[in-house]
From TrEMBL, chain A:
A Gene Ontology molecular function term of the record: ATP hydrolysis activity
Pfam families: ABC_tran
Family, similarity comment: Belongs to the ABC transporter superfamily.
Keyword Magnesium tagged: no
Identification of the protein by name: NitT/TauT family transport system ATP-binding protein
UniProt superkingdom: Bacteria
UniProt keyword annotations, A-Z: ATP-binding, Nucleotide-binding, Transport
Domain ABC transporter: 5-238
SMART domains, sorted: AAA
Coiled-coil ranges (or none): none
Organism of provenance: Limimaricola pyoseonensis
InterPro entries (alphabetical): AAA+_ATPase, ABC_transporter-like_ATP-bd, ABC_transporter-like_CS, ABC_transporter_ATP-bind, P-loop_NTPase
Automatic annotation (TrEMBL), chain B:
GO term, biological process aspect, one: transmembrane transport
Principal place of residence: membrane
Organism: Limimaricola pyoseonensis
Span of domain ABC transmembrane type-1: 56-238
Transmembrane segment boundaries: 60-83, 90-116, 122-145, 176-197, 217-241
GO terms for cellular component: plasma membrane
Compartment(s) of residence: Cell membrane
Protein name: NitT/TauT family transport system permease protein
Family: Belongs to the binding-protein-dependent transport system permease family.
Membrane topology: Multi-pass membrane protein
Amino acid sequence: MDNLIEIRGVRHAYQTGAGPLPVLDGLDISVPKGEFCAVVGPSGCGKSTLTRLVAGLMKPDAGEVWLDGEKVTSPRKTVGMAFQNPVLLEWRSILDNVILPLEIVAPAMPRRDRVARAEALLEMVGLEGFEAKRPSELSGGMRQRASLCRAIVHKPDVLIMDEPFGALDNFTREDLWQTMRDLRAKEPFTAVLITHDLRESVFLGDQVVVLSGRPARTQHILNVDLPQDRTIDVLYTQKAADMLHTLRDQIKIAQGRAPEAA
Amino acid sequence: MESLRRIAVPVAAIAAFLAVWEALVRINGWPNYVMASPSDLPAAYAQFWELFLVGAWQTLWRTVAGLALAVVFGLLLGMIMGFSRVMRDALYPLLVGFNAIPKATLVPVLALLFIGQHDFNTVMMAFLISFFPIAVSVGIGLSTLEPEYRDILRSLGASRFTIFRKIALPKTLPEFFGALKVSVTLAFIGTNLVEIVSPHGRGLGALFLSGQTNSNYPLMFAVLIALAVLGIALYYAVVALERTFAGWAERQAT
Ligand SMILES: Nc1ncnc2c1ncn2[C@@H]1O[C@H](COP(=O)(O)OP(=O)(O)OP(=O)(O)O)[C@@H](O)[C@H]1O
Ligand SMILES: [Mg+2]
């Protein structure tokens, strides 16, 4: 199997007080090794649920999730996660926050090597000089950068991000897109990025998966055939505009509204 | 300069308090057996200093022992309630009910259960009166841990214990110390309660009682002041521990 991430016919329902709530209903996603899959969909359709299934934090009611040729049944050390909330630990310095996953994944790794790895990553995202600071001393964008470093410090095969830039202002967000693009060139992960920003999905994604409204299924897959080393300018080309237009129409359909007549 | 101010201000406040007290007694012309004045106290301390040392030590160690028990038991209970919904639902009403009982009623109960075990009874009372805030705060701290905090480590396959040790426990430390500050005063009250109420007691509470029986009012007031000093010392010991272990939670003044 060539695809590092393979999601086949996944269904899932939450048990709630008012009976089962179907959230995912027939989800199919394939992400080849090294590629970047952006997932968009209406609010509450089940995107975060999808990340928890891929991470092995939950088991789907039906269907299968495969990572690197193995069926996911429980959490695995080869996954990294980042959320909208950077969830940094206030009692640790930025450096020690980034090191945290190594303490679990590589307990035998010498402290010196851990520090070197974390420092290299922090430098890559522009946080050199902030290693000893506490999370509360950093801006929101800087915290999110540190959170990204923590998500990839243990060189995961799969990086799962749930709206990591959702709480940032537009300029900071675009800065982080570029940071993400640069990290991708140097680190070997395959990524799933949940987002509600269509421009973000086109700028970072190799493919954009549109989910339908709840219960979500794969409604549309858009292949982003733009060059790998994109700049923000690419979003202002005709090609990108057409893709954004397609995605917008698809979201409208997902929300149950007819696309506007062109 | 700053540290000088931090010492000078409370010292000045205490001096002012003593001056007002002294003035009140003098202006009203209260005799010793109505209200002792601060100037009566040195004589009382000089006369009974050995009893004060022994009593303070007894009060101190029994309070600390009771508090230590409360920490262990409170942490355990808090963990159980924090991690299990069912246990939380089951234990909460019991705990609240127990906490509502006036603890003075427990003195005879304990005294009958463990006749003559004065030290044990006192430690038990300090423990019983002080574990509640710890259990509740740790339980709430753990059960309100945002799922993302758990998921950072759970997604790597970390065990529940590792998640508890690396995330849940440190994250609840500020709440724990907040509760401990309440508990330390409660434990102190519990110890004194038993010392004062039970016959042939020990500690500063018993010294107070003997002052009362012998109508030695300066002694009674001297004990009260000694209790206040001991209470302050215990409280600030907890504050020092908090600074050491949860100092990160203090916001920088900007
Ligand atoms: N643990 C849970 N128990 C019951 N229902 C849940 C649970 N988690 C999520 N849900 C429900 O499942 C649905 C999908 O939730 P999910 O968080 O996956 O959506 P989402 O697409 O990430 O939403 P958003 O865009 O707002 O982040 C929502 O209606 C939510 O209320
Ligand atoms: Mg979500």
